[in-house]
Write a structure and sequence with these properties.
Order of helices and strands: HHHHHHHHH
Number of strands: 0
Helix content: over 70%
Radius of gyration: 20 Å
Number of helices: 9
Distance between the termini: 36 Å
Largest sheet: none
Length: 245
């Protein structure tokens, strides 16, 4: 039997689907995170140049990647909501912003912990570091702008414009080490020609998968809360068992 996926574009039907999907992503996220930490800190060998300090990359690199990808997805949802006036798209954009901001924050702090022993400083105005800091401010600006406007629809439109304009910063983050002479090293994850030990690769990609799972879980949980907030006066929400309790 064919499944009509378009019916899940409505908040009323997506709310139930999101609740069913959360455990399917939450459990693998915990398992994959544990596996990655074990491989990264107990199995992977010591780096010849950076010693034990390099192990921060097993958290830093996935967080950095997710901070960029989540922003682009958030901007995509915001654009769909702005162009086609789809409520769920705007709700998804709002739901993703806090998780994206968290990953940007983790990226900056783990980068500082890595940079201190490598560069001798917690922070330098490197092109990639600065553009990643701007990304964090864009996330926070999106959240603050949306919260400052009482009307949800007007808030969706205003924050969508900010998200779309701010998306130009993501390519700058990625290509900054190629465009400018920066202290930051090049891409850590390469699909060919990499000299990284197999255990390091396993730890990196496993943590990246765990972070993706976590991001999905948090987005689904948060969008369910947003749906309940915006639809709180509708009959279907008042009839939900979790609302009646």
């Amino acid at each position: 039997m064919a499944i009509n996926w378009f019916k899940y574009s409505a908040p009323t039907t997506f709310y139930g689907l999101a609740g069913k999907l959360i455990p399917w992503f939450a459990i693998p996220a915990v398992i994959l995170c544990g596996i990655s930490l074990y491989i990264g800190f107990a199995v992977a060998p010591v780096d010849a140049q950076q010693g034990e300090f390099y192990r921060i990359i097993f958290i830093h690199v996935p967080a950095s990647i997710l901070s960029m990808f989540l922003y682009m997805i958030m901007a995509g949802y915001a654009a769909l909501g702005l162009i086609f006036n789809t409520r769920l798209s705007s709700m998804m954009a709002s739901a993703m912003a806090p998780t994206g901001a968290l990953f940007a924050f983790i990226s900056l702090w783990t980068g500082a912990l890595w940079g201190k022993p490598m560069w001798g400083a917690w922070w330098v105005w490197d092109a990639r570091l600065t553009s990643e800091l701007i990304l964090l401010f864009l996330y926070l600006g999106f959240i603050a702008l949306h919260a400052s406007i009482d009307d949800p629809r007007r808030a969706d439109r205003a924050s969508a414009l900010l998200a779309i304009v701010g998306s130009v910063n993501v390519p700058i983050i990625y290509f900054s080490v190629k465009w400018w002479n920066t202290l930051h090293q090049g891409s850590t994850i390469k699909f060919s020609g990499t000299s990284m030990h197999i255990a390091m690769q396993q730890a990196m990609f496993t943590m990246l998968a765990a972070c993706w799972m976590y991001a999905i879980v948090m987005t689904l949980m948060r969008v369910r809360s947003i749906i309940l907030e915006r639809e709180r006066h509708t009959k279907w929400v008042t009839e939900l068992p979790e609302v009646q309790q």
